[in-house]
Amino acid sequence: MSSTAALALPSFADAVARYEPVIGLETHVELGTVSKMFCGCATAFGAEPNAQVCPVCLGLPGSLPVVNEAAVRYAVMIGLALHCDIASWCRFARKNYFYPDMPKNFQISQYDEPLCTNGWLDVEVDGEVHRVGITRVHMEEDTGKSLHVGGATGRIHGATHSLVDYNRAGIPLVEIVTEPDVRSPEVARAYVDELRELIRALGVSDVRMEQGSLRCDANVSLRRRPAAGEPEAPFGTRTETKNLNSLRSVERAVRYEITRQAALLDDGERIIQETRHFDEASGRTSAGRSKEEATDYRYFPEPDLTPLALSTEFVDELRAGLPELPAARRARLIAEHGYTARDLTDLRNAGVLDLVEETVAAGATPPAARKWWLNELARQASDAGVPAAELAISPADVARITVLVAGGELTDALARKVIDGVLAGEGTPDEVVAGRGLAVVADDGALTAAVDAAIAGAPDIAEKVRGGKLNAVGPLVGAVMKAMKGQADAATVRGLLLERLGAS
Amino acid sequence: MGITRDEVAHLARLSRMSVTDDELDALAPQLEAILSAVARVAEVAAADIPPTSHAVPLTNVFRPDVARPSLPAAEALAGAPAAEDGRFRVPRILDPDE
Q1: Residues of B with CB below 8 A from A102's CB?
Q2: Within a domain: residue B78?
Q3: In this structure, how many other beta carbons lie within 10 angstroms of the beta carbon of residue A209?
Q4: How far are the Cα atoms of A75, A251, A319, A323, A423 from residue A205, in angstroms, in the given order?
Q5: Per-residue confidence at A1, pLDDT binned at 50, 70, 90?
Q6: Closest Cα in chain A, distance from residue B69 (Å)
Q7: pLDDT at A204
Q8: Which candidate from A33, A156, A159 shows the least CB-CB separation from B65?
Q9: Which PANTHER family match (chain B) (predicted)?
Q10: Are residues A448 and A432 in the same domain?
Q11: I need a surface site. Which of A95, A184, A203, B18 has the fewest CB within 10 A?
Q12: What is the CATH number of the domain that holds B4?
């Protein structure tokens, strides 16, 4: 085997100029059921080890699995949202292997009769839509978690023994497999991102990559780009990089694998079909266990489970109950609210898209709702270290504040103080305005007095303004705002000053 | 048709069973006899008889998504050959030279 460390990698741009990457993705998603796939054990994350196990998920003799109906519903919903055909009849299958992450020595999965087949998902990158074909979505059970002891930094290599926690074993999973339709690391990342949004919108998984409830494997191969007039080259040998647990890792691992394979092909070497692991720290992939004994899982129909024969009514009911999906929602928000695709990405990344939509529904204009959530409130959430949705201010409160600003009753600076007050538990925006005395002072008496005082306090500046240097008025505006403790509208103050000085 | 000695060796490897050369020599013809006997089913199974994977004609046997009490961790581990830190302790997974 050639050593990757010694390999001089071409630049990514150079690699893809000569080779076309062919990428397929396999994504595992833990379904958000309260109980496991085949038994009643709880699925909560973070329990004490082996506190959520029973004879069924431990594979003890005499125990029998029974399918969790909610898991089937969730899997069908995912299939429908991915435009798949839903099988009217399918079976579970035993995947036999010896590895201590499954105490039964097999995993219940689906083999040649997946629940959902033949779908697609559209993914947008830089304004261009890429359709990614979905080969299949099948159901299976998750495996246990192993700790490897005695080797370096928990690695399985060099370990003296391993410790297994079966809490995760038996949690319902779907595996979503794409066609080899993806051609760049950016589209690979965007696909996983869009898939995650879709499944989150369905409410069937919490899709938290950092907790492993959504994990991605990337199959990557290269083929030489044909010269003009030449036919397309056949697909090259692929590698599978396992367990990518962040969007960034998906993109980095695919990018690295493209340059690594290009270097090998440039040297006239062949790509070995193997499983690889991505190392976050170095940004490289390394060979996993060699599979010289070709995987032979001896799949056969699971005798302990009856086949699934889902009726058209069952599937149609789920189809009718699907919520609005992300692509449709984006199109609607662009059409109805005038947002750009970029705005929606920003709002989503800030975790405030739902909040903005609710704020608009509560009476704010779309630009105002966007502005306050994306700037002030996202910052407050970040300072407090909580998601924006957990801030102690409701979309209705924010909408009310934007209405007060639009009506001239609050300036932006005052509105920020009102937000502080609401977050501090001082009541509704109107109660905070009253309680803190924050309304813009429009009463001419107090304002006129402050304007006169500012002019009297800086006669030289006043003279310049009278002489036509309108921009010199700034310090006077500042003095008035200070005297009014910020409770005046700066533009109004400027107008009053210029009027007083005969310069307007 | 027929099962070869190599196939028996492959199955033994997949099953993590240690089988000697003598045993392979003895087992291959025995398995061959068993398979031939079972294969007689094919003589009566016409195209209109689908392969049977389940003995009872049931489909869609479901349970509701309700969590039920699990085993106490100590009880779950009680039958394990070895346990450590509340986990099942298993022997080294990879050979040292792997």
Answers
A1: none
A2: no
A3: 18
A4: 10, 23, 18, 14, 30
A5: very low
A6: 7
A7: 97
A8: A33
A9: GLUTAMYL-TRNA(GLN) AMIDOTRANSFERASE SUBUNIT C, MITOCHONDRIAL (PTHR15004)
A10: no
A11: B18
A12: 1.10.20.60
Write the CATH number for A449: 1.10.10
Instruction: Read off the DSSP letter of residue A90.
Output: B
* CA–CA separation, A174 and A191 (whole Å): 16
Interchain proximity B92–A159, CB inside 8 Å = yes
Give yes or no for residue A68 having a pLDDT over 90. yes
Express each pLDDT in A331-344 by its tens digit: 999 999 999 988 99
* Nearest one of A362, A364, A371 to A343, comparing CA atoms: A371
Q: Does residue A115 belong to the interface with chain B, where contact is any CB pair within 8 Å?
A: no
Best to test chain A binding among B13, B63, B85 (most A CBs inside 10 Å): B63
Q: Is residue A366 within 8 Å of residue A339, measured between CB atoms?
A: yes
Q: Do A53 and B87 touch (CB under 8 A)?
A: no
pLDDT tens track for B22-49: 999 999 999 999 999 988 888 888 788 8
Q: In this structure, what DSSP letter does residue B80 have?
A: S
CA distance A394 to A388: 10
Query: Any alpha helices (H) in A176-245, and if so which ranges?
Result: 185-202
Q: Verify that A350 and A297 share a domain, yes or no.
A: no
The domain in which residue B9 lies consists of 1-47
Confidence class of residue A293 from pLDDT cuts 50, 70 and 90?
low
Residue range A255-268: average pLDDT? 96
Nearest CA in chain B to A44: B67
Same domain, A71 and A219: yes
d(CA B43, CA B31): 19
Under an 8 A CB cutoff, do A99 and B56 touch? no
Nearest to A234 by CA among A470, A488, A20, A490: A20
Tell me whether A194 touches chain B (CB under 8 Å): no
Model confidence at A292, in pLDDT bands (50, 70, 90)? very low
Which uninterrupted H or E stretch holds A307?
Answer: none
Q: A410-436, pLDDT tens digit by residue? A: 888 889 999 999 999 999 999 998 888
Q: Which domain holds residue A382?
A: 324-436
Min Cα distance B78 → chain A (Å) is 11
Give the pairing of strands A128-141 and B83-84: unpaired
Number of domains composing chain B: 1
Tell me which DSSP letter residue A225 carries: P
Residue pair A103/A59 in contact by the 8 Å Cβ criterion: yes
Element (H, E) at A239: strand A239-244
